[in-house]
Here is the input.
Amino acid sequence: MNRVGILSILFVLSLILPFTALYLAGDTHLITLKDIVDFLLTGTTGDKFKDIIIKDIRLPPIIGAVLIGLTLSVAGLMLQTLFRNLLASPYTTGISSGVLMVVALVIFVDSLSHLFEIFGEKSILVAGWCGGIFSMILLIIIALRVREANGVIIVALLLSYFFMGLRAYLIANAEELKIQEYWGFTVGSLSKITLGDIIPMTICSIIFIIGVMFLIKSLNALLFGEQYAKSFGLDIKKTRILILFFASFITGAIIPYVGLIAFIGIIAPYLARPLIKTSDHRYLVPATMFLGVILMVSCHILSLKYYLPIHYIYGINRPASPLPIGAVLDILGGLLVVYLVYKGEKKIKLDY
Here is the structure.
């Protein structure tokens, strides 16, 4: 099958799965398939209670999963192309570390907690945005000072380990309740997304996708190395800063809503390359987007359908809890990558 055919199938799947998730994400006896169809076509099921369940409980996490799949997967792809490293992602390049660092400071340091109390329930969200801005500025400064792209990723990775050490110190001296709050952020969950969060998430996603479209030609030039791209007149430093800016921007904008969902930035581009059989970003970017949506929505369905048996694992009398989507993605994605490597897909290269 040609690339256009594969992209068409991925596109159709990325459209069908969110609607399927809207039906499967809960009790299928309470909300029937007819209710879903009526709601999508007319805006109501005829029952106010069912409308509230669909609109306020089921719909926001699914839209969030779609937006995360569209954006963070491509952010990972861009960073992999820039650094010529299949393991590069918003997490491994330290973008997420800045978000986590500021969130940890607000949760564990009382003086900062009081300062952010003016934002009420959105205090962690605002702290995450501040961390995203901090990461973006830091990465751009590093990119301006370091000549080689590999130098940027090395410095960023070392800084992320530094932040990890600071977070470990804060956790070691924190109260149990605050540790649970922090853990809930790091594990990644779609359950906190509300209908009001969808608009800013969508606006940020649209800005990011438009930026990526303008960078496709530059990304293709980088496939052959910075020296080759420079010989064709590409401004390497400007391109590097733009890629880091957009990757940092979308990571800092999205992660505060959902917590750390890092693996999508690695697994989606990894699966897209052998499937589409090219590293040409004209095909690879949409393939990565669609696969990101498919993976995120599939993991969302699994996270709601299967539960963690707390009482068997920890020996405590507590009801089973839904699996965090970040954990589901890490487990399934990790097993899938191991399988592909075992099957010989490890020969994937970052060129045409």
Q: What stands out?
A: Confidence is low (pLDDT under 50) at residues 310-316. The first strand starts at residue 307 and ends at 308. The radius of gyration is 21 Å.
